[in-house]
Write a structure and sequence with these properties.
With about 110 residues, the protein is mostly beta strands. Helix content is about 10%, strand content about 40%. Pfam families: Gp80.
């Protein structure tokens, strides 16, 4: 169902951004609990906090984050309520990125309610 009223779409998007701002990377489908989250590496993998900014018409954009990850293949990004632990909010399939050695993956989150 598409939401016809732009103000309603924006209100929903703004509420969504209030759920969490910590971005994660995953080596497989995280399901509904955030499984397959990256770990290890030097520097060590850690979730990164995005800064949400509102737009209009149901769009919220986050600042780009740079996440250090060990060698592996990364297929999903996630959103959490905290830097560690916390509540798993959502996931998105990303372009599969395979790293043969320690590296960095850039993620720029956005939310669009239509």
């Amino acid at each position: 169902m598409a939401i016809a009223v732009a103000a309603t779409r924006q209100s929903l998007a703004d509420n969504y951004k209030g759920l969490g701002a910590w971005v994660s990377l995953h080596t497989g489908d995280p399901g509904t609990t955030g499984t397959s989250e990256a770990s290890g590496g030097t520097p060590a993998y850690a979730r990164k906090q995005t800064t949400w900014t509102s737009s209009t018409g149901g769009v919220v954009n986050g600042s780009q984050v740079t996440i250090d990850v060990p060698a592996g293949t990364y297929t999903y990004a996630g959103l959490w309520s905290a830097a560690t632990g916390g509540t798993f909010i959502d996931k998105v399939l990303i372009t599969s990125t395979a790293l043969g050695a320690q590296g960095q993956i850039l993620v720029t989150p956005s939310i669009t309610v239509s």
